[in-house]
Input
Amino acid sequence: MNTYKEYIAEFIATFALIFFGAGSVVMAGLLNPSYGVLGVALAHGLILMAMIYATGHISGAHINPAVTVAMALVKKIQPLKAVKYIIAQLAGASTAGFILLIIFPVMPSNLGTTDLASNISFSTGILIEAILTFFLVFVIFNTAVEKHENNTMAGFAIGMTLAVSILFGGALTGASLNPARSFGPALASGHWANQIVYWIGPIVGACIAGLVYEFVLKKKQ
Output
């Protein structure tokens, strides 16, 4: 059973991020403007912070296929294990999406599925998602992966980075920064518009952040 604890932790943590994160988008659509982007940003940031503290000691709290790919790129996780992490993340996200469908059968806001604003092109969407994810993963590597006295603040720093990213990019791309965040609600709602943006952008941004950490900023042993 110990072998599967990490995958169960990733499933639960990703479920929580999508359930509360995408769910907050649905609620913002129902309660707008009293809820708004600030509520969505805080919902994502706070639940990510909580899940990092809850599961970081079990799985490392990737909660994001882009993070897992970046970790595999710099050899922080074995490739086969990374694939299993991603499967667990997508399963958690999909389960959360279908639970939201049960709660909101009329699918307001497409169950919180991310999409591009009308004035944002496909390539610009990828660029925005890549930049935002770069900073998220930059913070992850330099607070959670790098061992120093500030590791106890990693969850707070990572959660607030996601919240700030949504405050900036929520109205532009939905500020997914996470393929699972976009995939789960899309699967449940059937709204697949621009889905590839939320795979290419976050994975590219995460990998660049991982390489910058590994070859430029990492402390020499």
